[in-house]
Amino acid sequence: MDPSASQHGNFDLVKKVKLDYAPIELQKWTSRKTGLSVVHLDCESPLVKGYFVIRTEIFDDSGRPHTLEHLIFLGSEKYPYKGVLDNLANRAFSNGTNAWTANDHTAYTIATAGDEGFLRLLPVYLDHILYPTMTSNGFVTEVHHINEKAEDAGVVYAEMQGREQTPGDLMALKMQRAFYPDGSAYRSETGGLMERLRVLTVEKIREYHGEYYVPHNLCLLVVGRMPTSTLLDVLQNQVEPDILKHGQIGSPAGWKRPFMETPSKTQPQVTKPLTEVIEFPEKDESQGEIAMSFVGPTYEDMITRKALDLLSTYLTDSPISPLMKEFVEIPSPLCTYIYFIDNVRAGYSAIEVYLGGVPADELDGMYTKLVDALKKVAKEGIDMSRMSTIITRDKLRFLNALESNPGEFYSGAVINDFLYGNNDGKDIPQMMGETDRYDELAKWTNDQWIGLLNKYIIGNSPVIVLGKPSAGLPEKLETEEKARIAAQKKSLGEEGLAEKIKELEEAKKEHEQPIPQEMLTSFPVPPVSSINWIPVKGAWNDPQNALSSDKELQTHIEKDNAELPFFVGFHHAKSSFVTISALLSTVDMPHHLLPHLKVYLNAFFSLPVTRSDGTKLTHEEVVKQLDGLSVGYDINFGQGDLFQNLIRVTVRVEPKRYEEAVAWLKDLIYGAEFTKDRLEVTTAKVQQSLPELKRDGNTVMYAVSGDLLFDETSASKASDILAQMDHIPKLAQQLKDDPEAVISEFKQIQAALTKPEGVRFSVFGNVLDIEKPRSPWKIFKELPSAILRPPPKASESLTRLGKRPAKKAVVVTHPSIESSFGIHTTTGIQGFGHADQAALRVACEVLDATESFLWRFIRGSGLAYGAYMSLDVEAGHLSFTVYKAPDSFRAFDEGRKVIEGLVNGSIPIDQAVVDGAKSSIVYSTVRSVSTPGSASSVAFLNQALKGVSQNFGRELLEKMQAVTIEDVQRVLGQYILPCFQPESSVAVVVSSPAKADEIAEQFTKAGFHVETRVLDVGADEADSSDSEGDGSVASER
Fold first, then answer.
1. Is the pLDDT of residue 1032 over 70?
2. What is the C-alpha to C-alpha distance for residues 679 and 662, in angstroms, rounded to an integer?
3. Which of 223, 597, 647, 689 falls between 20 and 30 A from 73, CA-CA?
4. Would residue 1031 be called left, alpha or beta, if left means φ above 0 and alpha means ψ between -120 and 50 degrees?
5. Are the C-beta atoms of residues 369 and 356 closer than 8 Å to each other?
6. Alpha helix locations (H) across 405-472?
7. Are the beta carbons of 974 and 967 closer than 8 angstroms?
8. What was the pLDDT predicted at 668?
9. Across-strand partners of 338?
10. Which 8-state DSSP code applies to residue 166?
11. What are the E-state strand segments in 121-181?
């Protein structure tokens, strides 16, 4: 394509912008014939991402945008088979498709490794979006049906059942009703309220599709490296002919652009603060939540919107921010967090403020307290030095985001422009000019910042929604739901219920029709050689000389003659930033102190510090200087989900500040001072965050499972919600009674973590551009030479049950949820180099892949929103997880039947499925190393912690290519089937009160020894109930 061309076939160039601060170019094109819009963000990445965006406006709570999103994936005119799109996506170096429904658009996504698979899949995806089958049977399984117990189910229904009574959803809907004017689509629950889903029909969804899913109302955003001309050629030659055959030629007469030309553009009129109250089900009535919405600037006023974003950062981003100091960083916090969000609307924006973990008796007065705190900020003025630091740091974070994931940042901007920008593209240059906005705002005065605060927050009237917990609501909801189902069963009668069961079985049969193999195999899997991997060079300061290295980088490291007696890994990849990390082992910590780590991690970057030169800094000075130094800093357990008995401390900076960062890392680890006031404040914050964490069924499920499988040496177990619910109140009391004893314990933690046998360091980034990579580390004088121990592995912290899972099931009644969550664990393979890892990973992907076996038989039947296998080779476990199920046992039992059928051959596994699984794993592998930072991190993880080669992931891919159907069947029987057998597995289920007893009884009949619990919610705790059947144990927690 001629770079200066303004036309290419049917497509006209609308706007082209090339960034001068990053190697990125944006081009927007529109088809003269169909009105289809295409935006290509050309940037360097091994991944190509596609976003298919539809403007979707709805003026009721029927959930048609959301239900249609689900039906899109069930087949199309050219590909009329359920699952064909995702099966083909799996063959395109992808791990399937995805989608989301917002209140103003629906977006369909795909990401592939390389462009070959993406371009091949593009016409298939658009055929599904524009011309889906939308069958009645698809509606039955995917949206709503009634099962044999007269209960309502379906994938969408199960999803909304798990959401509708959560504080976030209840408060959001209350806010939408109160903030937006009558007649506005922004008032609607686009996901669909359950009562409306129960009466929705497929005909209504088809009508909605015909109105909104038209080419001129669709924008395709493609992010990644490919010739724009190739993208346009595929659209013109393979997509547009079908569009024209359907008679879809541009915008029809009288068509109105959603939101911008409808009543939704009417701006809210909030002349004085308006407060609404909504109750949510929660036995623990100690804390609630608050949401506020203010009318903000227009989409086009990007400088003001950016200024508000930076102002909110100034107010809330760290322990020294004004609102954090006022409400959070105090001995009795008034909330555990506060944040601002800017949501663009038609002709205005909604500035949303959210406060979580608010003491219930403070809810009514919090708005007044917030305004008073902001008036105090306005009176005292902005700390212009700190604001300057925030602007500089935010700009660096933006540039870091562009390096790591440009699609993540610009996808939202492009979608907003499609929804609310001018069709002629005149807003695009401004949209892309983010660095110009930083430069302009760096010149703002105190008066301008205060004027902004006064105009949009202090002097602006909000709608306020108070979310109040209700201990009586769970029982009320349970009673009402049981009565509704009983009435529904009576209304249907035996004949009517039999008809519903027949309807569901017929729908399942249709979906079980096999996809013709030639339809799949005609779609070739791209060669792995087509992937552009990010090059990484590794070298080591390793006194034990145990690891292989890149010659060029090792030579560069050794040119710096500084002798270091400890382990530092260096990984070079092209980057504008350098990341340094310390990995500290917890194995030398006294076990009774491990629960303190939650507070230790939360306090780490906001404690007073004595620098190496003797300078003493207050916690506020520490935070301010760290913010001025770094792009970001973090402390957490392990690396990803692995090595959770390590603490990882990370600081990311520009290369010119590398030496400063190393010095700070040392002083944070060794020079932190544990004071009574800082420990009290942090402990209070953690304590106040627990009720909100406790409301999430999935979080509780993983905690209960971890409690069964891991012993007292597990650092992550000691920090989970169950352990902290018991530990934190005791720690808070101990800080009052004997603070010096607590301080002494935290010093013991510091000493244990810095034992030289367990300390490792890493450096990622442009290491070759750092003149002296080793010398700055000489500041770690306290770290003597020692024999480095192997990193602690999860397999070393297993309980007896964790080593040999068998027979045990725990069913937890959770009063705040309406669905159920389950995890089932068995013994798997242990060790990163295990000979069966390739076959077992392929087998898990054969089960997990979108539209593969677990998806089709469990999600596709409406038994759960999600079900998947997990392989943990560090611990030696294999798990099956059920997410948001009306009845977790039914999903588990269906999974058992599927695995048995695959093992005995009654459910066949064909080569196309295995090939698709292998291709999907290629995508997952590439995604894990798709940025300079992640590629370097994985290289360090492989060599320094796992003990495998730097390119282990690629080597495993090669081994997977040799995996056969017979290999898959063998490991399914050897490793995965035991996960569904009581004699070789343990189960944990967290369920709503309505289903808990029934689920417990089903597991008892299946052969498990069932223990029932009721989630401890403090003073209002309900009584636990016994499970019926042999081997049952009752307990209360």
1. no
2. 25
3. 223
4. left
5. no
6. 406-420, 428-432, 434-441, 446-453
7. no
8. 98
9. 355
10. S
11. 145-146, 152-153
Looking at residue 1022, what is its pLDDT? 34
Reply yes or no on whether the pLDDT at 1013 is more than 90: yes
Name the region of 677 (left: φ>0; alpha: ψ -120 to 50; beta: rest): alpha
Show Cβ contacts of residue 81 under 8 Å, excluding neighbours closer than 6 positions: 75, 513, 515, 516, 519
Gap between the Cα atoms of 176 and 101, Å rounded: 16
Question: What pLDDT, in 10s, does the model give residues 822-856?
Answer: 999 999 999 999 999 999 999 999 999 878 899 88
Half-sphere exposure of 586 (CA within 13 A, CB side): 31
Residues 6+ apart with CB under 8 A from 201: 139
Handedness of CA 884, 890, 893, 899 (dihedral sign): negative
Helix (H, G, I), strand (E, B) or coil at 314: helix
Residue type for 768, please?
Answer: L
Main-chain phi, psi angles of 93, to 5 degrees: 60, 50
Write out the H or E segment, with its range, that includes residue 737. helix 721-737
**Burial of 757 (C-beta count, 10 Å sphere; 0-12/13-18/19+):** exposed
Report which secondary-structure segment, H or E, holds 753: helix 739-753
* pTM across the whole model: 0.88
CB 843 within 8 A of CB 971: yes
Q: Where are the beta strands (DSSP E) in 150-232?
A: 152-153, 218-223
Q: Reading across the β-sheet that carries 632-639, which strands appear in turn?
A: 537-541, 567-572, 759-765, 578-585, 642-653, 632-639
CA atoms within 13 A on the CB side of 488: 19
What's the number of CA atoms in the CB half-sphere (13 Å) around residue 322?
Answer: 22
Whether 990 and 812 have beta carbons less than 8 Å apart is answered as yes
pLDDT at 430: 92
Torsion of CA 204, 207, 212, 215, to 10 degrees: 140
**Euclidean distance between CA atoms 941 and 569, whole angstroms:** 10
Q: What is the pLDDT of residue 1030?
A: 31
| Dihedral sign of CA atoms 587, 591, 597, 598 in order | positive
HSE, CB side, 13 Å, CA atoms: give it for residue 381: 6
Of residues 66, 43, 55, the one with CA closest to residue 158: 66
Summarised one tens digit per residue, pLDDT across range 280-303 is: 999 889 999 999 999 999 999 999
Buried residues in 461-470 as b, exposed as e (16+ CB within 10 A): ebbbbbbbbb
**Which amino acid is located at 725 in the chain?**
M
pLDDT in tens, 466-475: 999 999 998 9
CA-nearest of 349, 308, 344, 342 to 416 is 344
Output the six-digit token pair for 287: 């804390």
Amino acid code (one letter) for 820: S
**Token pair in block for residue 677:** 């006031």
Encoded tokens for 505: 């079985």
Kindly list the distances between the CA atom of residue 836 and the CA atoms of 405, 966, 972, in Å, as whole numbers in the listed order. Answer: 34, 13, 11
- Both tokens of residue 254? 């009288």
